[in-house]
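Input.
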Amino acid sequence: MSSSWPEFSLAWFVAASLEALREECPEAYTLMCAQLAPRRARLVIEGETVTLAFAASEARLLKQSRRPSVQLTTTRQIILNVIDARLSLEEAVLADAIVLKGHLNDLSAFHAGLISYVRGAVRCPSFPPLLDRFRYETTRRAT
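Output.
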């Protein structure tokens, strides 16, 4: 599609999306960080793992974390199904298409932070091209 795109990875996508949120919708970024502080979240998507650490006003990617507060495991296609409203987040979790692990209070905070992330993302001009790239890479990997 575009040879000018940087090398795609889950870490690149997460970092780019957090940077866009921080720059373009700082109130959502700050709220998300506050909701998730002082937790660590591990995302495992089709064998790629990204771990995030949250402070009151900052999210950062870690090289690794042995003890995340929350772990989410799923596939790229399930993420797209949820984004495109073919599947609700609740349906995906109940069907084990998204597997969440953590203590109840950490899972509750993760849900709140995820909602803040999404509410901010829909207001950011940089998110549609990021999502296009995610879709492209998902389709490319499936073929």
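The first helix runs from residue 10 to 24.
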